[in-house]
Design brief:
With 226 residues, the chain is mainly alpha-helical. It has one domain (2-218). The chain contains eight helices and two strands, in the order αααααααββα. A hairpin with a 2-residue loop joins β1 (156-159) and β2 (162-164).
């Protein structure tokens, strides 16, 4: 049960994008199509899960004085593997995602989970945490991308060019796939999620959940949130 709770927390309660508001750079940059969002999410999930596993296995041998550099080296290793594999087997997707695959190395979600969870827990729980957080990140990217692509292009591309065309015909809103549209769509989705959370709390007879304090002292990644 604990493994499932840790996995589900990364998707719902501690979703990195919709709850913790982390990883916004790739969220806004690559979500012009659903295919890009899925590719980025899967790449981040692979790196997150593998780095969590290795950090957990080596946690007793990594000196405290150099633990952050060690985590970066571990993450960079798996990012390099991911980047080279995508260039070899999915060149079109790799070109579309561009610099944002190498930038996974400094993604605060990856380093945050290594520091806050994998360095303090065993490999099984760390893998569950990596898979859950990665799945939550992928779902968030996909939700933003689906809204932007449908509204901006009037289409939805799932994978390898397969998808649905002419959903809205000529009624597409081009701004949705522009940089400003990413901020607007993300803001609307955050507002919707917060509203649904308030409604759910009201049905339970409790107060609406307060937004997190977005500074380092209150970061839920480094606290005792799990």
């Amino acid at each position: 049960m604990k493994i499932f709770d840790i996995f589900s927390a990364g998707i719902f309660r501690n979703n990195p994008t919709f709850k913790l508001v982390l990883g916004l750079c790739p969220t806004l940059a690559v979500t012009t199509s659903l295919e890009n969002a899925i590719g980025m999410g899967l790449a981040a999930t692979f790196v997150l899960t593998c780095s969590n596993l290795l950090v957990s296995l080596l946690r007793k041998w990594i000196p405290d004085a150099v633990h952050i550099p060690c985590y970066i080296v571990i993450v960079a290793t798996f990012v390099t593997v991911t980047d080279l594999a995508m260039k070899a087997y999915m060149p079109a997707l790799s070109e579309s995602l561009g610099i944002f695959i190498p930038l996974i190395v400094v993604n605060c979600i990856i380093l945050g989970r290594a520091e806050a969870f994998a360095s303090k827990n065993g490999p099984v729980l760390s893998v569950a945490d990596g898979l859950g957080t990665g799945a939550g990140f992928t779902l968030a990217l996909s939700a933003v991308a689906a809204v932007r692509e449908i509204a901006g292009n009037g289409s939805l591309t799932f994978w390898g060019g397969e998808g649905v065309e002419e959903i809205f015909g000529d009624a597409a809103v081009t701004m949705a796939i522009l940089p400003a549209g990413g901020f607007v769509v993300l803001g609307l989705l955050l507002a919707l999620i917060n509203h649904l959370g308030a409604l759910a709390a009201a049905r339970r007879g409790g107060p609406a959940p307060l937004p997190p304090n977005l500074d380092c002292r209150h970061c839920t990644l480094c606290g005792a949130g799990r």
